[in-house]
Records
---
Amino acid sequence: MNVRLTHIGTATLLLEIGSLRLLTDPVFDPAGGRYSFGYGTGGMKLTDPSIKPEAIGRIDAVLLSHDQHEDNLDRAGRALLPKVRQVITTQAGAKRLGGNALGLKTWQGTTLASNGFQIKVTALPAHHGSLGSHLIVGKTTGFLLEWNGQQNGALYISGDTVWFNGIHEIAGDTKSALPSCISAAQVSRSPDRSVSPSTPWTRSISSARLTCCA
């Protein structure tokens, strides 16, 4: 199975898995823009995306951890959403986005298909901050990707989450081997934008510091 992961910027990854092309948390604004996180907080984007949205090509689905913060869904990323086949996100996010957005409850799944190839996508527990912080920052989600022929466990996309007890649930409740994992926040610190599944700095989900593995 051909799997290619390309880091575009911040938490934005292009996942090419078989015949399916998926995108996480689309952020495509040029460098220099300011992002609002709400309640008077914000930040400035320092780098351009490695691929411009008009060059991204066909996207079968966007895996959106949350829609309420611009460092995970900025203006250019939001403009891209109507052009993709489906957006998978939180239930609250899907209500706000409308259109092609599908909201999943935690542990609820859906199936993506292209040319006879299928990936099961399951929404996973995620916390955007300490206990109770969702009342201020809103809900977020991670994702588990499963397809036939996986040899190293399911692929876990952490989303924009802190470490919390629910991370252990993911390892315990998935019936496959310990999932391979991607923490987009960690991948974004790598100088190599193309992430190889055989990269030597892999760690399993049981690690306290999530990185990328396959």
---
Amino acid sequence: MLMTIIGKITSIFYKINSHEMKKIILLNALALLLITFTTQSCAKKQGCTNPQASNYDPDAEENNGTCIIKGCIDPTSENYNPDANQDDGSCIIKGCTDPEAVNFSTSANSDDGSCKFRKDLFIGTYIGTTECDNTLINDAIGGQDITFRIVEIPGEKSKVTVEVDFNIEILEEDPIGQIDENNVLTFQGSQKMVEVDVMGTKQVLDIYVQGTFTLDEATMDILSGTMTLRADLSANGVPLITSLCEANANRQ
């Protein structure tokens, strides 16, 4: 710019014949050059003046708004940096990171131990009553208190132990229950060679229990469903008794 001004002044200077006029032009040119030089020498260097910025310029005297501050720009993150203007991928969002959990968080990248699995919905003790469609079975257990104890199996996410207690003992070993993706609990168990009194006659039976239960979606505290109880003669496997029982029990 300075050289352009000098060039224009020189061109005008040589076109003028008056000595006085040349003197005036020369003085004005010198003044203009002095002003231009002073203005340029006093101009502040532009750049990023924030030491925290990745493009910080220690020689800059005036901030020009170009500072780049890297960090987490997600306000929901625990390490959110309100000064950052460029995300560096460091955001920490805590939550459940296991896709099999019922409370899996798609946005979480740091597991906080809060994962809940299908088994956790059912674990607990429930007490209620049952009604069976077979008179003999219903006389034995119908209308009586029934207790379900659903117990965690270490390391399992959807399997539980199901303890079913009537006023009579049916199974010595508690069946293993499986909870599907629709939160339906199914279980089955059996007991071989059980000696019982059937209408005054001793019989050796094989007992089978199969159940399907769900939790009330509104409260998650009411266990309801059906159980099929079947007794076969141990000697020949001939079915002796089959009964469908409906049960409802409340979480304690």
---
Amino acid sequence: MKPAALRIIAGCAMAIACACKGGWSDGSPVSHISADSAIIERVRQQYSAVERESPRFKRVERTLTGYSTDGGGLVAFYNDTALRKIESLLLNRAGRTTQTMYYWNGGLVFVNRMAERFNRPRSGIVASAGKELFFFADGKLVRWVGEDGQLLRVDDAAARAQSAELLRLSRDFAQVAQRPPRR
């Protein structure tokens, strides 16, 4: 067997062994990537319920300015006075980003973000796209699924920055939705 193949097999075996012992080779617990499955299942049930009920919700449409170079908009969905969902679209020269944010008991629980990159500036022709999923529990990012479908760390600087940005956008968009429409 070739040395490269042996290194790959050895690396995989070590990762499996560490995961079975409850941690990785650097000593960090497996939980740094994935929250407890019960938490994730609860979040899935919450955003699924919001999605099922959303046709009955009151819709509020607003223009978004200052969040991207070419503008955007949002649609907020309310069950009575409770914010349950925000769909946003942000446009720029290179592409567009759509985000759907789901709320449960006043808190952000899930974000589905799709980024589409154009083949040329402002062409509208999508050359590539990537989808990311963010699961929150008690205001904290507990699972991040990257564009390639891989689970990403939720305990490093990149995850903290991503979480802070999503929570900030969530608050900002909720405030925009509550403003009177522009005339």
